[in-house]
Design a protein that fits this description.
Elements: H1 2-17, E1 23-25, E2 30-32, H2 35-49, E3 51-66, E4 72-86, E5 92-103, H3 108-124, H4 153-166, H5 170-179, H6 184-205
Antiparallel strand pairs: 1-2, 3-4, 4-5
Length: about 210
């Protein structure tokens, strides 16, 4: 299993030099090691040790949010496996990490992939501490998500009960609606789905 010898060789080199936290997050005032710093330090050591690292994306999730100024932000999470392969005998060891990043343009996935790679290397090689393509370089202030009563479990259960009642006709629908507890969730469900519920109930009578 030459892969472990190669990993150890890279780790031994990095243990002597480390990678300093020379970059600065201006929003929150902390230092960090950028992805470019990690690339520059690790790449020649990988070549010297005959160690190849190959990524494999297992999943990607993207959610659109807004920051405090109302600007759209894309929040991306990637689940990635990295195969550490020894070129001498093809033996391999797989490391899985997650990467998260936000961006207002089309770079969120790139940043998330860079974050996943950086932390896979940092943990696999236990890199000691001595571009803005790095998720650590910027911190976005995200506005709190507005409460949506239609997304609650209570709303979904209420809608299911009303749909079942609608299948029995208009009178059953009206009775089921009156039986539901009053409140914002009931109002939201009815406002969003009353037309389709009434139409379904009317077709039963027809």
């Amino acid at each position: 299993m030459e892969v472990y010898k190669a990993i150890n060789a890279v780790q031994a080199e990095l243990a002597r030099e480390g990678i300093s936290k020379v970059r600065r997050n201006q929003q929150q005032g902390y230092n960090f090691r950028g992805i470019d710093d990690v690339y520059n330090a690790v790449s020649p050591l990988l070549a010297k040790a005959g160690l190849v690292i190959l990524p494999r994306v297992l999943g990607r999730d993207c959610v659109e949010r807004t920051n405090a100024k109302g600007t759209a932000l894309f929040y991306v999470t990637v689940e990635v496996e990295f195969d550490f392969v020894a070129s001498s005998d093809g033996s391999r060891h797989t490391v899985k990490t997650f990467g998260e990043a936000m961006d207002s343009g089309d770079k969120a996935t790139n940043k998330a992939m860079s974050a996943a790679y950086k932390y896979a290397l940092m943990q696999a090689f236990a890199i000691p501490t001595e571009g803005d393509n790095d998720a650590d370089a910027t911190t976005h202030e995200v506005a709190a998500r507005r409460f949506d009563p239609l997304e609650t479990d209570e709303a979904q259960q209420m809608l299911e009960r009303l749909r079942n009642a609608a299948m029995e006709g208009e009178e059953a629908l009206a009775e089921a609606f009156r039986a539901e507890p009053k409140g914002a969730i009931k109002n939201a469900v009815w406002k969003a789905h009353s037309a389709s519920l009434k139409e379904a109930a009317a077709q039963v009578a027809a």
